[in-house]
Amino acid sequence: MPEGTPPIELHDAPPTIEAFRDRLHRLSGQLPRRLQQCADYVATHFDSIALSTVAQMAEGAGVPPSAMMRFCQIMGFSGYAEMQRLFREALSRGVPDYATRLANLKAGGAGQPATLVAEFVEAGRQSMEALTRDLDETALNQAVDALSRAQMIHLAGFRRSFPVASYLAYVFDKLGVPAILHDGVAGLGHRSTLRAGDALLAITFAPYSDETLALAAQARETGLAVVFLTDPPATRLAGADDTVLTVNEIDFGAFRSLSAAIALALALAVAVAARRET
């Protein structure tokens, strides 16, 4: 800290992103070198905080994780997890709740069953066309390679992603591909089953589930290959060595089906089974 600079005052955690931004601005120039590096990096990577680990943020700032933790405390948080929660909650608030979505549909005159069927079919058609047009074939081949080499494929998908993960578990079973579904029933995560030589296929869509992100982090630490199936742009979602497949589901009335995600998942499962046979 520059000579003559008054001590840094500690405050309660900022309640909003706007308050966080204001406090960050006021602290600029008052921080020791490493904490200032943290502040500078955070100020230009707000979109990364909700999805990145403390180690990833520290690496981006060029400081040890302990410095990033200290920065969080200077900002008024007990640690990185509490600071990250503020940004994750802000991310989830960007999506209207289901009651609001339903009310908006009714107000727009789209409440008739036949109309809803037609609209969702059209949204599904557009989603499938977008998948065909935007598919990253290189990433798809990398995903097939990683999963086909795995002794066991671990499947994770919670909340809206669960139908995709459970369907994959069914398909892999029918195709004779060893797979285990991490469904979280009774609070059991099956994390003890993660073994080097396995692979994790994680399905998650923004706002991403904490359970899936935590499982992916543990899988990396254990030495598993990690494949994500998610929505674009997936900024900072995956690690450097992960494979990311993105699918853009077109919504109707803020409701999104899983048409394209299921199609991509099915193609991935069949391709993996076929490659294991060769």
Task: Walk across the major sheet and give the strand order.
Answer: 2-1-3-4-5
* Contiguous runs where pLDDT drops below 50 for at least 5 residues: 1-7
In CATH, the homologous superfamily of the largest domain goes by the name: Glucose-6-phosphate isomerase like protein, domain 1
Helix content: 40-55%
> What is the β-strand count?
7
Q: Provide the CATH topology of the largest domain.
A: Rossmann fold
- Distance N to C terminus: 62 Å
Structural class: alpha/beta
Strand content: 5-15%
Order of helices and strands: HHHHHHHHHEHEEHEEEEH
CATH domain class name of the largest domain: Alpha Beta
Rounded radius of gyration (Å): 22 Å
Structural features, described:
The protein is an alpha/beta fold and 278 residues long. The chain has 2 domains: 17-92, Arc Repressor Mutant, subunit A (Orthogonal Bundle); 113-277, Rossmann fold, CATH 3.40.50. It is built from 12 helices and 7 strands. The strands form 2 sheets. The protein has a 5-stranded parallel β-sheet with strand order 2-1-3-4-5, with helices on both faces. Strand 6 (251-252) and strand 7 form a beta hairpin. It is globular and about 60 Å long. It starts with 16 loop residues before the first helix and ends with a helix.
